[in-house]
Write a structure and sequence with these properties.
Length: 193
């Protein structure tokens, strides 16, 4: 199950991967909070899609999102460019089975503005992190990370594009490993055996 609300590059990477008969996972559906390119990418491949529009009542929306996702019976929920915080109801139903791709080396630069924050801070290396989702903002146990060098001429667009290239490969690899081996969670630490 993929949650997405953006351009669809991460969702497309997973959708491409599952088309390979050797890949050990499938995508049950792509769910979003709005119409977006990620849904179109799924529809082109015949993968079911659903939009659960954000409402003024955040708790109500979170329950509706959880009900929609539960209807697809996912083993794993992949937040791939889904730009909403998952609430208590969602986490209660799927906690420990939700992963997120983040465009920085956590715990540095959490939140929605990781790439400009890394540039503003002047770091020489940033990257991508795949982590379990918990009640915080990008605070869940880290499963995998990959570095990306920051070039002196980088701006937000060029750096983010290079991070996304690494992020797509990393996400596909982590989902493959989870499908085959599962995840072990020990407090703040999580790993794929």
């Amino acid at each position: 199950m993929i949650l997405a609300s953006g351009t669809g590059s991460l969702a497309s990477a997973l959708l491409d991967a599952v088309e390979d008969d050797e890949y050990p996972a499938t995508v049950a559906a792509v769910v979003s909070d709005r119409e977006c390119p990620a849904l179109k990418a799924a529809e082109r491949r015949g993968v079911p899609t659903t939009v659960v529009p954000m409402t003024d009542d955040r708790a109500e929306w979170d329950r509706a999102l959880a009900d929609t996702v539960a209807g697809h019976h996912p083993d794993l929920v992949v937040s791939a460019g889904f730009m909403k915080i998952l609430g208590a109801d969602f986490l209660a139903r799927f906690g420990g089975r939700i992963i997120n791709a983040h465009p920085a080396l956590l715990p540095s630069f959490p939140g929605a503005h990781a790439v400009p924050a890394a540039l503003a801070h002047g770091v020489k290396v940033t990257g991508s992190t795949i982590h379990l989702v918990d009640e915080g903002v990008d605070t869940g146990p880290i499963l995998a990370q990959a570095p990306v060098a920051v070039n002196p001429a980088d701006d937000e667009i060029t750096l983010h594009e290079r991070i996304k290239m690494v992020e797509r490969v990393l996400l596909v690899a982590v989902v493959r490993s989870i499908a085959v081996k599962g995840v072990v969670i020990e407090g703040r630490k999580a790993y794929i055996p």
